[in-house]
Amino acid sequence: MASTVFAPSSTVYFSRTEVARFSKRGHQRKLSSSLLGSRVSISRTGTAATTPIKTRAKKINGIGSEVTCSASSAVLPSALLFDCDGVLVDTERDGHRISFNDTFAERELNVTWDVELYGELLKIGGGKERMTAYFNKTGWPEKAPKSEEERKDFIASLHKRKTELFMALIEKKLLPLRSGVAKLIDQALGKEVKVAVCSTSNEKAVSAIVSCLLGPDRAEKIKIFAGDVVPRKKPDPAIYLLAASTLGVEPSSCIVVEDSAIGLAAAKSAGMKCIVTKSGYTAEEDFLNADAVFDCIGDPPEERFDLAFCGRLLEKQYVS
Q1: What is the pTM of this model?
Q2: d(CA 76, CA 128)
Q3: Which residues participate in catalysis according to the annotation?
Q4: Stretch (H or E) spanning 79
């Protein structure tokens, strides 16, 4: 008997009943399982045209069975689109937050965003939008202007200085790439899959991350869509639709890697498949609509997924 599995080499868990149903010859059934937080669909049939795999099952604590599965795929996405903060680098807590606070201190605004508060503020896409919403709610600093137009300029000046401070952190390489990022980008570029970074952050800050941490050779092959390049930021899908249009690819052929619920919402609204790699601030967010959820991309020997897995997401709709 042959089986088709839409996942990289992995370990997935089923109950006894699921394993029994899975093993019936000639019966095809979609099963939902957990692969480091991901929803993975497995189909088993009696046909010989599918990809052979090896499986093994054993009792786990007398309750379930362990099934080890491996497969490969030649199907590839047309484009791989990454969010920046929290996906390429876990920048929010010890990068952007620190830079905001240093800016507030320089301007003597008597404002400090602690770790917990900043986690709440991250629900608002964009640094300028984040500051504006915070001041509208808590009151504007005494040194802030009174008119709406002047306040926009005030916020823009704060954000410009914050970006300068953040870029200095990146250039010193104090914040490392997340595990597996360089590997997955290299796999995509090696297969001539288009790669882009789509972020609500300032374009200069995103470019600094890509250039300094991924290196100039990769950076020159990666298209960046960031900051105010679109009028509406995530969870609006505008930035992902712009990326697909500019790259000349269909949204349905794109794979997005995100870390937040607002990023996930933007990708799905754009009609794209989305893999979530949880970050420090987003681990407890609702990712029910994600096509797969992992704690990171991962490098061997602790790789969570690869480019072949991304291709499989385009072939099969994963269901719960």
Answers
A1: 0.71
A2: 37
A3: 83, 85
A4: strand 79-82
